[in-house]
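Just curious: can you write a single protein's sequence together with how it folds?
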Amino acid sequence: MKRERWNERYSQPGHLWSARPNRFLVVETSDLAPGRALDLACGEGQNAVWLAERGWEVTGVDFADVAIGKAQERAARDGIAAEFTVADLLEYEPEASAFDLVLLLYFHLPLDELRVVLTRAAAALAPGGTLLVIGHDRTNIEHGAGGPSDPEIQYTPDEIADELTGLEVQKAERVFRDVAGADRPAIDALVRARRA
C-alpha cells in the first residue's frame, strides 16, 4: 500500500488501531530489562510510547508522516521522551548492533522485500538483543478474522524463523487474538529471536 493511502488512513480522527500496546508485545517483553528499542513500522507509536513509559530509550520509524506526527504529539502530550523518524523501511538502515529490542509488528510485504527489512532488523540487534516479529499468519485469510487478504504478503512463523540466520529463535508459533465484532479470532504469526 502506498504512503499516500496510509497517510489518508492515519489522518482520520482518533487512533487507526488502538491507543494500547500490542498484547503480545506486553507479554514477550515482560522479562526484558529496559535498554534501547527500535520500533519499525511504528504507526501512531502506541508500542513505542508504552516501552518509553517503562524506561526504554525508544526510536520509532514509519513511512507515514501523518502517523509519525500523531506519535510525536502523543509522546509530547504524555511527557514521554521518544524519537520518531519518517523513513521507508526498504531504504532505512538502522544503526548496527545498537538495540536491545527491535520490533517489527504487522508489517507486510512480499517475502523478497520483507527479507531486506528483516536482515537489517537483525543486524541492528546488540549482543543479547531480542527481535520480535508479529504479523497476520497466512492461515488467517481462511480461518481467522481481519487482516490483509493477499497471501503473498502474509507469512508463517517458520518462514520468518528461517530468515533469521545468525539469531537464536526462541519462539515461532501461531497465536490467536480476539477481534471485536468477529465470530472467530485472528491468527497471527509470532517469532521471538535473540542475538547471542
